[in-house]
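User: What would this chain look like folded?
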Amino acid sequence: MNGWRSHASRRANRRWRTGLALCALAVPVHAAAQQVVDTRMENDTAASRLRPEYDQPGIPAATFLLFPTLSAEAAYNDNIYARSDIKTGDATLVLRPAINVRSQWSRNQFDVIARGEFDRYAKHAGENVETGAIGVDGRIDIDGQMTLSADAMLAGNIEPRGSTGDTLFGAKPVAYGQITANLKLDQAFDRTRLTLSGHLDRYRYVARELDGVPIDMSYRDFNYLEGKARVAQALSPGVAAYVDLELDNNTYSHLTPGTGQRDSTQYAALFGFAFGINRLLQGEAAVGYFHRDFRDNAYRAVSGLDYNVALAWSPTRLTTVNLTADKAFQRAPMLGVAGFEQQDFGVAVVHELLRNILLRPGATYSLSEYVGSPFHDRFASAQLGATWLLSQHWQVDANVTHRLGRFSDQALAARNFNQNRVSLALTYRF
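Assistant: Here's the prediction, encoded as structure tokens.
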């Protein structure tokens, strides 16, 4: 994946946590047809099943459990700048401390999550970066039919080398601060469920310096606000139909004279199905229509097909196949461009080779098409990963990844790249 997203995901609600939230995707089915969906089977997949002899036990603290982890990764990247004109490799050491605090209450829920990442290169100290995030989420069970949930996150991130947002070469990677917040109300009516949700993203970019000259990145500061309503109706055991109505507003914090007003508003309507057929099929798939208007008449309105797919298929108890597809409008990384439409596709497999050894092959493809421009960017990746659970405290992860990027604008030919990365990580789970 190219790493360039204006928000976690408009419709699949991918937040900063990794992985596919299978149970959350099946919520419309489970809530509306609770009497016919066996929740014990929903978690019995290769990726999600409990392994008491290997699962992190946690540290009790009053009515909470603490889950601290510390990971150290050694890696080699044969093209650290993700370019074709200057191709150089380097070894890195990455430290990833994290802690998850989970409530253990019989009703309601409150979690705190914090993580950090510190990358250190053996030969190219200019690429050293530090990123991190802290977030909270909670749920209030108002009654048996209504829940109110919210989460918020503050993060410091970078644009990965080779991504659409990686616009600086010779300077440190582009860095930004991000604030994300979500609010959701769920109300069940027998076999029908109504969900109202709001999402906020706020990006603030950090100034950089190139050859002693300061570079102001504030023209990329961006705000995203979305509201969504979903009505889901149970059709049969483990299957529900739903309609999503969405409205979002995109604004840039600074207007640079002579570059055009890039703010825009979009509405969309999608129809789809949610699945919670025990272990076999979980997730959702929807298709619909979107229309986006720009405040500046220099940018013509765009409209067309909209879609969202996030499915998990478990043909056996040992294998789970995750399929994702999504279309979204992304903020622009340069002046004079309103933004671009990005389509992402992915397949990820988790196979339980042994009780404590999981294989994780996968592939992604991304297409970014600029609004009002004939140019587009393409990214693809393929990887093979493996996780070895040594005990409740120790875990080993190995990964081999191949990435490529292609830019149709000939002025950016030097940014076309092929990249290979191998890594080995050792994690201690307290």
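The mean pLDDT is 88. If you want, I can go into more detail on any region.
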